[in-house]
Amino acid sequence: MTGYDLVVRSSRAFLPAGPVAAAVCVLDGRIAAIEARDAMLSAERHVDLDDLALLPGLVDTHVHVNEPGRTEWEGFRTATAAAAAGGVTTIVDMPLNSVPPTTTVAGLEAKRAAAEGAVHVDVGFWGGAVPGNLDELAPLHAAGVFGFKCFTAPSGVDEFPRLDWPGLPAVLRETARLDALLIAHCEDADALDAAPPADGAARFADFLASRPPGVEDTAVARLAAAAADAGARAHVVHLSSAGSVPLVAAARAAGTRLTAETCPHYLTLAAEAVPDGATEFKCCPPIRGADNAGALWRALADGTLACVVSDHSPCPADLKAGDFGSAWGGIASVQLGLPVVWTAAWERGVPLADVVRWMAAGPADLVGLSPRKGRIVVGADADLVAFAPDDEFTVDPAALRHRHPVTPYAGARLRGVVHRTWLRGVDIGTIDQEPRGVLLTRP
């Protein structure tokens, strides 16, 4: 009889084919076997979850850690502790808002130096595509970044300027040559300039008017056309506008290698319910109406949207003060994404298996980490989550592990509680746990 390091038994283990009663066997940090729940097995440690669900560790490919340079906003130690508490076992860090940004190999090395020994979950890195760094893309790709992020509108930080439309084709030709993925914040700068300004806006409706859906739709259409011309892979990050969904679907039907993601806040929050002055709800693109959210759910169901990721973008509380024009645009949610999405999914009759696919397998597929991450399969890393889908809790900002307790979900009643998180078979859920994550490079 094989001796395993750990056996986790559950009546609802979420395998790729769906939930089944199973015993997941771990050896040397990997899933070595999946047996019947009541199988006689030899192991150093046994965990029986009873009725708790066993999920694969979630993969969040859109996290702004901000370290080094803006560690007072967030940091690797705090961001990854929050991720672990939320059932996220792998993140990919955005190339901004750190100083320096990850637009050079030196910038990537600074990121890795800041993260080394400080991460509670596994961490990969995006590179950045900005004006003037075309020659840096190949070295960054060789150094193991998972792709390149660009903005088609101002990013909000001076050290990461937007890539304008005349500059985009050369970047796409280079990423096509490298077979690298370009991910894009899609808002059209000219359309933004033509919209009403948000300066001094206390009403959320005025902020929403400053970034209408057409700003996003125009940029998605232009990205799709440019990617098709270059034969490149491209991905739309944090898609919020329902009007962009048919643009993505049409591009894909025409053979363009275009994918898109959305975020928990676009699926679950509604512009109609945002109180005036509540800048904790500000993000860019903005939260839109309830009907818009319904269309995003349908796009997930039909596969037009590939995954749900957090766009965790924290900042100190004082930067969230003021009005909708001046406050920082970002929502910190890496710890809450699973219960936020599951609560809304349950209300809509969407099965948990779909949520797991969108938040674990889908992001892992996007960045080439499958089947190592995002699935409970033999050979995968033993990244596992014990989850109580029927339990409820009220969001207490003081209980969040990211650096600043600012959240639009404060006081919300959510469904689904993470009980334990394992990274390669080691329980990482306790708040005083020594960091056990590793730094990932592109496979």
Describe this structure in words.
The protein has 443 residues and is of the alpha/beta class. 28% of the residues lie in helices and 23% in strands. It contains twelve helices and 17 strands. Strands 1, 2, 3, 4, 5, 15, 16 and 17 form an eight-stranded mixed beta sheet that branches. A six-stranded parallel beta sheet has the order 9-10-11-12-13-14. α1 (76-85) links the parallel β6 and β7 (88-93). α4 crosses α7 (213-230).
Structure at a glance:
This protein is an alpha/beta fold.
Average of the residue pLDDT scores: 96
Helicity, as a percent range: 25-40%
Biggest β-sheet description: 8 strands, mixed
Which regions contain 5 or more consecutive residues with pLDDT less than 50?
A: none
Instruction: Output the radius of gyration.
Output: 21 Å
Q: What sort of overall outline do the alpha carbons produce when their principal axes are compared?
A: globular
Helical stretch tally: 12
What is the chain-wise order of helices and strands? Answer: EEEEEEHEHEEHEHEHHHEHEHHEHHEEE
Beta-strand share of residues: 15-25%
Say how many strands there are.
17
Distance between the termini: 33 Å
The helix/strand class is: alpha/beta
